[in-house]
Design brief:
The complex is a heterodimer of chains A (about 240) and B (about 240). With about 240 residues, chain A is mostly beta strands. Chain A folds into two domains: about 90 residues, SH3 type barrels; about 120 residues, Beta Barrel (L,D-transpeptidase catalytic domain-like), CATH 2.40.440.10. In chain A, the strands form four sheets. Chain A has an eight-stranded mixed beta sheet with strand order 11-10-9-18-13-14-15-17, covered by helices on one side. In chain A, strands 1, 2, 5, 6, 7 and 8 form a six-stranded antiparallel beta sheet that branches. A two-stranded antiparallel sheet of chain A has the order 3-4. Chain B has about 240 residues and is mostly helical. Chain B has a domain of about 160 residues: Ferritin (Up-down Bundle). In chain B, about 55% of the residues lie in helices and about 0% in strands. In chain B, helix 2 runs antiparallel to helix 5, helix 5 packs antiparallel against helix 6 and helix 5 packs antiparallel against helix 7. The longest helix of chain B is centred in the first third of the chain and has 26 residues. The chains are: A mainly beta (about 240), B mainly alpha (about 240).
Chain lengths: ~240, ~240
């Protein structure tokens, strides 16, 4: 790494970095590096610093899969689960799971469009057959609750998603006192205000739980959602089985 | 995010602002109140620095500001190496360097936090913008960070009033110098490039760190509108 001999002095820290980072531009494409390791109970996520396009391949000319905004429909910072990283022609690309239909769609975005990497060790697992939600921390169950899920005509989608925001301060008969937004979307209620995103929230009608009672959201009692709130950070992956 | 960042913009959780303000002689009541609490948290790893409640408890606010300035830099370095270690881009001596130096920087953070107790500034959030994700980016950045760290400690040492804190700062300073020489050697750069090293002022270091945009800007709070009885419910599918 002889380029390091060109260090121009430390007073221009950013300028020095810019010069020293030049050799990366000559690097060839590398293998993908996994940014999340479910087997090790570790997941990474990041906010979106600049709106951008997610592409089908780590290439500026590749097909656009989706437009990625900096804010969610709730005006909170957009947060995306990170899957893998690849360096191509000196530029870093990150494969992300996108909050678009069909659920599970992934795309590549430039690393420099994202914020700093955040790491979580929690994992929310929703069992649609048993009507339970379970939160694991480092693989150990730390929370369990009976839940309501979508009715058969508005099913709660199966798949891998992420908690991307937390909303509170309201008291609503349907949503209860606290709600988490996820990256999952209803495949049937596509014209729902805000885009038909699936939430995990409380309810003032715990008497109808557990059951297939919702429009797709995951409902639990207000007491349970408050308990979950103490344990589950934004960025937590959600597996709906 | 604006193209040019000022300290005001990048300051996350008040860490840099508080440090810079204290260095400039700010006498904010909150800072003084915190300064008055010094001594309560001097336990554990602060002993590694030769600090103890009896000696460090007598320090003034300028020494606290210097320790917080050092802590901010150590937060930055520790987070950089910790992320780099987990990013899978390093092997060989670079990986060993990240592992060893990362452990040192985390120990520095622990010791400084213990010495500062409740006066310690909060850890900012970081975005290393891909420099932890390639060997070349890591090596270049590590060299700049370590060189800066050495100059920063050299710049503050003459300002320290307490002998105990000066000893502690020197104990870290020499280790940072070893780090700088090690990464320079790895990078095939001169390990000892000058007969005399130039110190950097706190202001210069903070401005240089701000230019890297490694410290994530604190999200600006919106002006609070007249509050309704309750905020609107979400619009999830319900």
């Amino acid at each position: 790494m002889t380029a390091a001999r060109r260090v121009p002095g430390i007073t221009g820290l950013a300028a020095a970095l810019a010069i020293l980072l030049l050799p990366a531009a000559a690097a060839a494409a590398q293998e993908d590096f996994a940014l999340s390791e479910p087997g090790a109970h570790m997941w990474r996520w990041a906010t979106v610093d600049q709106r951008t396009f997610a592409r089908a391949a780590p290439n500026p000319g590749a097909r656009v899969v989706a437009r990625v905004s900096t804010l969610t429909p709730e005006k909170t910072p957009e947060a995306l689960p990170l899957l893998a990283r690849r360096e191509v022609d000196g530029r870093l690309w990150v494969r992300v799971r996108l909050p678009v239909l069909p659920n599970g769609t992934t795309g590549w975005v430039l690393r420099d469009r994202l914020g700093g990497y955040q790491t979580v060790r929690t994992h929310l697992i929703v069992d649609r057959r048993r009507l339970t939600a379970r939160l694991e921390r480092r693989g150990r169950t730390v929370f369990r609750a009976r839940i309501g899920i979508g009715q058969s005509r508005w099913p709660t989608p199966r798949g891998s998603f992420m908690i991307r925001n937390r909303l509170s301060g309201f008291n609503d008969p349907v949503y209860g006192v606290l709600a988490f937004g996820t990256t999952a979307r209803s495949a049937t209620l596509t014209d729902w205000p805000g885009g038909g995103f699936i939430g995990v929230h409380g309810t003032s009608r715990p008497d109808i739980l557990p059951g297939r009672v919702s429009h797709g959201c995951i409902r639990m009692s207000n007491a349970d959602i408050r308990r979950l709130d103490r344990r589950m950070p934004v960025g937590t992956p959600v597996s709906v089985r | 995010m604006p193209d040019t960042l000022s300290l005001d913009v990048i300051d996350a959780d008040g860490a840099i602002r508080e440090t810079a303000a204290a260095a400039a002689g700010d006498t904010r009541a909150r800072f003084l109140a915190k300064a008055g609490l010094l001594g309560g948290g001097l336990v554990g790893s602060s002993a590694l620095l030769g600090l103890n409640p009896a000696t460090a408890g007598a320090q003034g606010k300028s020494d606290i500001a210097i320790l917080n300035f050092a802590l901010t830099l150590e937060y930055l370095e520790a987070a950089f190496y910790t992320e780099a270690e987990s990013m899978g881009a390093l092997d060989g001596e670079l990986a060993l360097f990240a592992e060893v130096v990362g452990a040192h920087e985390r120990a520095h953070v622990k010791a400084l936090k213990a010495a500062l107790g409740s006066n310690a500034v909060a850890r900012p959030r970081f975005n290393f913008r891909g420099t932890t994700e390639s060997a070349s980016g890591f090596a270049a950045t590590a060299q700049v960070l370590e060189d800066t760290g050495v100059a920063a400690y050299a710049g503050q040492a003459p300002r320290v009033k307490s002998t105990a804190i000066l000893k502690a700062a020197l104990a870290i300073h020499t280790v940072e110098a070893r780090h700088a020489s090690w990464i320079r050697d790895i990078n095939d750069a001169p390990p000892a490039p000058a007969v005399f090293d130039s110190p950097l002022s706190m202001r210069a270091v903070l401005a240089a760190v701000a230019d890297t945009r490694f410290i994530v800007p604190a999200r600006r709070r919106r002006r609070r509108r007249p509050r309704r009885d309750t905020p609107p419910a979400p619009r999830f599918t319900g």
